[in-house]
Amino acid sequence: MKKILSLAVLAALSTTPVLASGKTLNIYNWSDYIAEDTIKKFEEKTGIKVTYDVYDSNEVLEAKMLAGSSGYDVVVPTADFLQRQIAAGVYAKLDKSKLPNLKNMDSGLMKALGNFDPGNEYAVIYLWGTTGIGYNTKAVAKRLGDNAPTDSWALVFDPANAAKLKDCGISLLDAPTEVIPAAMNYLGLDPRSTKKEDFEKAAALLTKIRPFVRYFHSSQYISDLANGDICVSVGWSGDVFQARDRADEAKKGVEIGYSIPKEGALQWFDTLAIPVDSKHKDEALAFINFVMDAQITADITNYVWYANGNAASLPMVEQDIKDDAGIFPPDEVKAKLWGAKVYKKRTDRVITRLWTKVKTGK
Ligand code: N2P
Questions:
Q1: Stated pTM of the model
Q2: What fold is seen in the domain 130-266+337-360?
C-alpha cells in the first residue's frame, strides 16, 4: 500500500502532467517544423498523449501513405503530393464542424490550396515557403568575389561556380520534383514543363555539377550551414533561416543568407491531413483545430521562420519575420514564383530515373 501511495505522490509531483484521458494521437511531421512547446501545450490542454515522428521527404511520406496502416493520425503532405494522394484515396474528409478555427485561415491561400484539394475537403494549410539558396556569405565571397551571383541559380548550377565552391561544400535537397524544375528554370525552360527532353536537359546540367556536390539531403544542411561545414545549399526558406539563427547564436562569425533567385523559385504549401485509416480521427481534428489557433500558429512561425496560412495569426508574428522578403516575399518577387506541377505516374517515373542517375553521377 505504501509503495502504491508513494508512486501516486511521485506522479502528482512529476513535471509531466498525468494524461488522464487515455487518448492518444500519432503525428508525422517534417523535421524542424513546429515550435518547441506546441505539442506540450496541446497535451496539457486536451489530455491527449502525442507520439511525434519526423521525416524530410514527400516521397517517404507518400510511400507510407500508399502502403497504408501507417499508424499516423495527422500528416503534413505538400499540396501537389496531397492531390495525388487524395486521388489514391488515402485521406479522410475533414469534419469541418470540429474545426471552428477554420475562420482564422487566409481565404485567398485556402482558395489557392483548392487547386489541389477542391473545396478544401481534405486538408488545411499548415505553413508555406520557397525552395531557394542558402549560403555562407563570407565563404562564398572568398571564393567567388564580392560580386558572387548569390541572387541567381547560377551560384550553384553554373559548373564554373560550383567547382569553386566544392571545397567549402555544396548540398542539394534530396527532392527531385523541386531541384530538377529549379535547374529547368535556370536553363530558361518552363519549370512546370512535363516534357521528357526538358527533364533530361536539367538532369544533364545537374550531372555536370554533381562532382562538386558534397551531398543530397533535406535536413542535414541546417546544422551544417550553421556550423560552416557547408557553404551553399539548395534548401527550404525557413530551414535556411533556422541555420542563420543558429549561426548568429553560436557567434563564431558564420553569416548565412537566403536568396530567392532572380530567375524564380518554387512556392509550396504544406498541409495538415488525416489518413483514412487513422484510428484517432477526433484527436486528429482536435490537433488540427488547436494548430489553427491564431497564437499557436504565430508561435510556430516565430520559431521555424516559415510563413503560414493563418490570417488571424499575423498580428502576433514578429515584425522582423513579417518584414523579411525571404519569408513573406513582396509582390514583385511573388510574381516570379511558380506553383508545383502535379505529376502523373509516367512523368514521376522519368523524374525518379533521372534523379537516381544524377545522384550516382552517371
Ligand atoms: C522543414 C521542411 C520544410 C517542408 N524542415 C518542405 N515542404
A1: 0.94
A2: D-Maltodextrin-Binding Protein; domain 2 (3.40.190)
